[in-house]
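=== RUN LOG ===
request id: a7f3
mode: sequence -> structure
chains: 1
length: 304
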Amino acid sequence: MLINFPYVERDTPVHRLDPRAKLILLFAYAFSISQTSNLWVILAGLIIAAFYYSQAHLKWVETKRAWTFILILITLLTVGNYFLSGGNNIQGVDPIPHLHVLYSIPFIGFKRLPPYIGPTPLFVSVENLTFLVSQAMRLISIAFFSVPIPYTTNPGHMGIAFKGMGLHDKFAYAIDLSFRFLPTVVRDFGTTLDAQRARGFELDKLRGGLVGKTVRLAPMIVPVVIGSIVGAEDIISAMELRCFGIGKRSWLIELRARPIDRTIITLSLLGFAIITILNILGYFFTQGPLHFLHTQGIPHFLAP
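=== RESULT ===
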């Protein structure tokens, strides 16, 4: 409830972009950057993503909670994957003749034979650390493209954007409602919290374990959940009264792409096609310029 992505009305280059251009750019970049583990390609993508994010002119105060959640999640995913895989983070990348091991840590890992778990060394190498850093950079760069979408796009334009991208009316409107749902729930949560505090309910003074705190949160959870269900039923009734889904739906607002929007869409799709072709062709070569997406790109001074 405390992490929200409210729309911030502001006149910036990213705000003025067509929502379809933002979504296609995000999807094209995410699918492209996921096809490589090369450190330099991911670094270049991170720089481009950071520049794009800077054009949204979003303040840290406005996005602090969202970025805190994202950074914690990225840390858990990258570091947790490193320990769960026993340091074998370079799986899926070209076989490396030998690892440049810096040191090893006594660890408990998985084994192929019974009892399938036991003491095993956790190797910390240049290759593993490079892969870990590249994974974090990849996720952060994707976040740079995804975070501005709810903050810079009017929620009323999301369904129209997905409809303009070829989705059916039902799917487009479902996505539109999902973008509207979270701000509505957060608003109801704030209203309920203020009402309960006026009655003496102190959220910050809850005691007990996880179960105890959850039980004591009933004065907050129950009204919000019931209100959400009632609101959903009202929307369903309104849609049924208007015979939604029987015929083709018309939208009140019509999005018009500008030249800059068409350019971004074209470059996004073209970049995705180039990366995909290089990725496919790289499997037929063990070295050379067509194979660089399948290498880690570790600087020579780190792994001589």
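=== NOTES ===
The CA atoms of residues 158 and 256 lie 14 Å apart.
The first strand starts at residue 101 and ends at 110.
=== END ===
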